[in-house]
């Protein structure tokens, strides 16, 4: 570990974005203080540390704040880089690929920006079709790849995807249709099932969170 550090995470229990950061901190064994935010009544500290987006998660490391979950994950990986458990691959091309898919995943599938839940009728049917097509694209990129970064422990993309499986399930319930299923998305399911069984995830995530 680089030096004595004071690490605080401002998060919210139901936030996939916060959850992925928590999992990364746990995996790397970084001690931190967790501060639960009420997003209907945001604390002055949250507004101070994330004046631009005013959202969780925010990581405060030795009084310096970092926001945006993907940026935070990269920071954690870079700062605590002598941990035996890297989040991103060393190879620059592979790193770029992981970042690409993480951005794709957030842009296409996460609830807040997801038109599947924000539309009705024909528009919703179109949004569901697009969701399935995008998932197919993601699924095809996984084909033939081992589950985790080092074959044993989860990495960046696993946490990005795993932290939001329960969101997909909530959307499915709301719209009354399956979005992801083991037949259509075998690679995703294999990867998420392995994630669910990983000790860090088992200890820190409710099983319903990763209901694959
Ligand atoms: N792109 C951001 C998204 C963070 C986000 O949307 N956080 C939500 C909670 S899940 C939030 O704080 N919402 C409060 C608000 O929109 O005012 C990230 O990756 O960290």
From TrEMBL:
<comment type="function">
    <text>Is involved in the conjugation of reduced glutathione to a wide number of exogenous and endogenous hydrophobic electrophiles.</text>
</comment>
<dbReference type="InterPro" id="IPR036249">
    <property type="entry name" value="Thioredoxin-like_sf"/>
</dbReference>
<protein>
    <recommendedName>
        <fullName>Glutathione S-transferase</fullName>
        <ecNumber>2.5.1.18</ecNumber>
    </recommendedName>
</protein>
<dbReference type="InterPro" id="IPR045073">
    <property type="entry name" value="Omega/Tau-like"/>
</dbReference>
<feature type="domain" description="GST C-terminal">
    <location>
        <begin position="91"/>
        <end position="212"/>
    </location>
</feature>
<dbReference type="GO" id="GO:0006749">
    <property type="term" value="P:glutathione metabolic process"/>
</dbReference>
<dbReference type="GO" id="GO:0004364">
    <property type="term" value="F:glutathione transferase activity"/>
</dbReference>
<dbReference type="Pfam" id="PF02798">
    <property type="entry name" value="GST_N"/>
</dbReference>
<dbReference type="GO" id="GO:0005829">
    <property type="term" value="C:cytosol"/>
</dbReference>
<feature type="domain" description="GST N-terminal">
    <location>
        <begin position="5"/>
        <end position="84"/>
    </location>
</feature>
<comment type="similarity">
    <text>Belongs to the GST superfamily.</text>
</comment>
<dbReference type="InterPro" id="IPR036282">
    <property type="entry name" value="Glutathione-S-Trfase_C_sf"/>
</dbReference>
<keyword id="KW-0963">Cytoplasm</keyword>
<dbReference type="InterPro" id="IPR045074">
    <property type="entry name" value="GST_C_Tau"/>
</dbReference>
<dbReference type="InterPro" id="IPR010987">
    <property type="entry name" value="Glutathione-S-Trfase_C-like"/>
</dbReference>
<dbReference type="InterPro" id="IPR004045">
    <property type="entry name" value="Glutathione_S-Trfase_N"/>
</dbReference>
<keyword id="KW-0808">Transferase</keyword>
<dbReference type="InterPro" id="IPR040079">
    <property type="entry name" value="Glutathione_S-Trfase"/>
</dbReference>
